Model the fold of this input.
Amino acid sequence: MKTGGPTRVSAGVMLWAVFLLICYLPPCAVVVLGALGSPAAKDLSLPGPRRLQLLLYSAALALAVAGLAMLLAAPLAAALWRASRGLARATLWILLGWIVVPPCVTAMAWLGLWNGAQAFLTSWGFGGMPLTGWVAAALLQTVSFLPLAVALAWLGFESIDTELLQAARMQRPEKAVFLCIALPLAAPALVAGGGLIGLLSLLDFSLPSLCGVTVYTLDLFAEYSADGNARAALFGALPLAAACAVALWLSQAIFRNAVSVARRHDRAARVPVRGLFARVLCVFCWTGLAFLLLVPVLALVWMAASGTGVGAAWAAVREEMFGSLRIALAAALLGLLPALAVAETLAEGGWRSHAAWPLVTLPLAIPPTLVGIGWAALSARTGWLQGSGWLPVLAALTRFLPVAALILLVARRRMDPLLWDAARVFQANPWHGFRRVRLPLLGRGILAAATLTVALTLGELGATLVVIPPGESTLTLRLYQFLHYGASAHVAALGLLLATLAALAGVAVGRLLTGAEGNVRAAGALATERTEDGAGRDAPSRSP
Done:
């Protein structure tokens, strides 16, 4: 069993080193380059009154968005949790499709609806109300992040032990079981989901800027674009990074729930919908879900149909589309092996897994603007990859490599551990076991991680805006620039094109992760049989 052990250790260590280098090099580069700056810049570590006020406003915006989104998502997720398996799975696939759609596309759909309603009211003599200001930014972010909030709240309900509900139903009525048992058990996950929504709100500047609001991350980008001072950007980002770390700490439970939800649940143990009030509330929640998921699609189609159509929009951004796909595919392919090594460490359990969790999730709290500034400053200082198309790829890897590792961890946890143990027993060497057993079993998970990385990279804006070479652009960047001139039919067609690609990717990820259950044991048995045969051929002298 010790044969090939050093090879396995060295390969895992090397892949972990690649992961840490990609995820932590940008902020470390900003720290090192900032230390080489002038001593007079030390006072930049303390934000001035204007920036401190802007940070407080941004934090208040994130808290409002997180609270409102989870308040709306909890009843919608409860209705989804109590639904039949087929209806729940179909709705979750649609939710996954909307989750990976770039927020600016979702915002454009809701802005189009708002402008249409404003035009209708104005035609009847009512005064218009422009969608500007902090309140408008909070509402726009809430509706844009609401599909993700519903999915996170559903994870909280799904993680409840159904045996507790069965025991409670013997003592209390159905309404009391839900309010006094199910809801409190899901409350920690709801708080964790709110922390993740707040983190996304803190890091996002695209949606508030559409409402004429300058948030903290946008101010950092504007200052760096003006003077190129990486030291000032670092010290300015420290308070934001601290706030993001707090939000990430609150959301740790949701990551663990996402990878520990059981593969099958007893649907009969769910609290059934009984009584007139419960049925009316359930109908209201499902109506809200349908409105949330279908109305933006119809709005995009309606706005795109009023202009030249998707064909003309595709012709106008064909070069940007191919460039975006090149960046996304390169990021997905380069990140698979490091993500596999990280997922394997997280799945093993023990002290190494507990120590690895913060290292894997902490990069999610790094502001995208700081990621872009780190790579741009490092490239400008060393001349490494300066002006090349690899900087957007590296920025995408820094942002989404942890996400790919978590997706692979989900796929790894869904595998039968006995198959893993059998591979360790019968493998001739670690590479042989990986090639004949682990890789076939994780095939769907690998494809899901790559697909999600492609979709998220296509919608990435914050870091790409800093590192994109002059004269080049991406589809999301072009769409964001067009949005400031109004949600025209041409822009709506671009948004519909990008939303379709992202939604298909999200549905594919859900299908790959949930559809593998029926094939795991058959594929595992076949892979183990092949491993035993291969071990007999490769190492005939080994005793089983």
